[in-house]
Amino acid sequence: MSAAAHNQVVGVPASMTAWVLDGPGELRLTEKPVPEPGPAEVLVRVGAIAFCAGDVSIITRGPSASIQGGLPFHKNFTPGHEYMGTVVKLGAGVDEYQIGDRVAVEVHAGCGRCERCRAGMYTACLNYGLNYGEYNKGHRANGFTTDGGLAEYVVNHVNTLVHVPEDIGDEEATLIVTAGTAMYALDMLGGLISGESLVVMGPGAIGLMAVAVAKALGAQPVILTGTRDSRLNLGSQLGADYVVNIRAENPVEAVKRLTRGEGAQYVLECSGSPHGFPDAIEMVKRGGRISLVGVPSERVSVDVAKLVRNHVSVFGIRGEGRSATHRAAALMAQKRFSAKLIHTHTFKMEEAPTAFRYCRDRIDDAIKVVVKIH
What we know:
The chain has helices at 3-10, 53-60, 115-118, 170-173, 176-188, 205-216, 229-237, 251-258, 276-283, 304-309, 324-333, 352-361; strands at residues 15-21, 27-33, 41-51, 82-90, 102-105, 108-109, 140-141, 153-157, 161-163, 198-201, 222-226, 242-245, 264-269, 284-292, 313-316, 343-348, 368-372. It folds into 2 domains: 3-107 and 142-164 and 339-372, Medium-chain alcohol dehydrogenases, catalytic domain (Quinone Oxidoreductase, Chain A, domain 1); 178-316, NAD(P)-binding Rossmann-like Domain (Rossmann fold), CATH 3.40.50.720. The longest helix is centred in the middle third of the chain and has 13 residues, at 176-188. Strand 14, helix 10 and strand 15 (313-316) form a beta-alpha-beta unit. The strands form 4 sheets. Strands 3, 4, 5, 8, 9, 16 and 17 form a 7-stranded mixed β-sheet that branches. Strands 12-11-10-13-14-15 form a 6-stranded parallel β-sheet, sandwiched between helices. Helix 5 (176-188) packs across helix 11 (324-333). By secondary structure, it is of the alpha/beta class.
């Protein structure tokens, strides 16, 4: 059946319900036109969307969203980027996906023309945010530089789509992006982690997914550090060989003890704590590698001389670049780990502000809070 015939069957409406951001922390439910997919794009009917720390920053403070070159407030902007749904309309030239396909989405569709995009580093696109007016270079990052998924429908470039296996539910599918971020962090460390020691600092959603992905790839041992026993216990269920509550034990001393004094080959700093990076430098093995995933809220001072003397490599990563979501989705499809363990709460679309509050304030020890759109 042709794409046009499929579109007629689906019956896409002209308008939709969507949440928009007014002032800081102010979400408002409104009506918006349903967007039209362009060439190499599809229209996705959103099934579910999860809140994450990036959404908290955008909705409460603005960064790292950039809407029309500035902060996202009072611009009719719809936030949200960790969503999944069903393809309901195809743009010109799309044959990679069909009407009815269930998909999860990456955030970033790079401009495709800068040197970073051409090298596959589209999350570091040099034209980030330049998608408006005379500055339009074609970049889009849903929920960051253009409308996101806290709405009934959203447009996505085919490069950002990942097929969702039929036996993965909507809530679990929203976590494919989270697992993809963890996968990208491991990619940047070299990716060959089977048999290597790894420390994951911070049992938030990304940290917990990093434990699961690393263990699925054969890391040994995997050490998880954090402050909440409930989350550390989840880390054990997802594959951590050792967990360290840093309120009860010095994390550097614990890692040295568990690695026979050598330190870990790899460290993923996912906590965003100002102490995270300095501690990572102390616990990594000479010649090892550190990947910074968490974003500190303040400047951090570190011992650069120690990094140099010990030949330690440091990588900062953003998002889920180099198609890491496809590899993470493959692990989930193979049941190598159960991502749904970190899904803690579900709300209806009209309850999105409450869902956001649960995520922001960690009410009831919330980790992944999902809003069901359809």
